[in-house]
Design brief:
alpha/beta; six-stranded mixed β-sheet; 6 helices; 20% strand; globular
C-alpha cells in the first residue's frame, strides 16, 4: 500500500514537545485517534506501551517506530511526529529519538500489513530521508517530505525484521 494511504496530513506533527518516551507515545496515540475515532486513545496508548514492553521499537540513529495491533481496525494507520528536542527512547545505540513514526494494525495481520511494516522500516532506515525530515519546520512540509521521500528511499536500506 502506498505510504499516503497509511498516513494522512492531519496525523503529522512537526516540532512537537515531548517530555519523555511515554509522553511521545501519548502524542502519537492522539494523532492515531484521528484515523480511528471509534477507538479510545487510551486503548491505543496502552497497546503501544504493551508493545514497547516486548522490546524497544527504536530503529536507531534517532528514529523510532512504535506500533501495535489494535482490536477493531481493518487497515494500517500511521502518524509521524518530529520532536523539537530529542528524547530518550531506550535505543540500543543510546541515541535520543526525534522522529517517531507510530502505527496501529489489525490484530490479524495479512501480507499487506506486513508490507506496510516493511515499507515504514525501509523509509525510516533511509539516512537521507531522515535528514530531510529533520530539516522541516512545518507539519505540511514534514508530510510532503515523508511522502516524496518514501518514493525515493533506497529499496536496499537496512530493514529490521523483528517488527511484526
Amino acid at each position: 500500500m502506498p505510504l499516503e494511504n497509511i498516513i494522512k496530513p492531519d496525523r503529522v506533527l512537526c516540532n512537537a514537545m515531548a517530555r519523555s518516551k511515554q509522553h511521545g507515545l501519548e502524542i502519537v496515540s492522539e494523532l492515531l485517534l484521528r484515523s480511528t475515532p471509534e477507538i479510545a486513545s487510551e486503548l491505543i496508548f496502552e497497546c503501544l506501551i504493551d508493545r514497547e514492553r516486548l522490546g524497544c521499537t527504536s530503529l536507531e540513529r534517532g528514529a523510532a517506530f512504535p506500533h501495535c495491533r489494535v482490536d477493531g481496525i481493518e487497515e494500517s494507520n500511521a502518524a509521524l511526529i518530529k520532536l523539537s528536542e530529542p528524547i530518550d527512547f531506550d535505543s540500543s545505540d543510546g541515541e535520543p529519538v526525534d522522529l517517531v513514526f507510530g502505527m496501529i494494525l489489525p490484530t490479524e495481520l495479512d501480507e499487506s500489513h506486513h508490507a506496510d511494516i516493511k515499507l515504514v522500516t525501509r523509509v525510516l532506515s533511509d539516512e537521507g530521508l531522515r535528514a530531510r525530515l529533520r530539516g522541516m519546520n512545518s507539519s505540511n512540509n514534514l508530510y510532503d517530505a515523508l511522502i516524496n521521500g518514501a518514493a525515493l528511499a533506497a529499496p536496499e536500506a537496512e530493514c529490521p525484521t523483528n517488527f511484526a
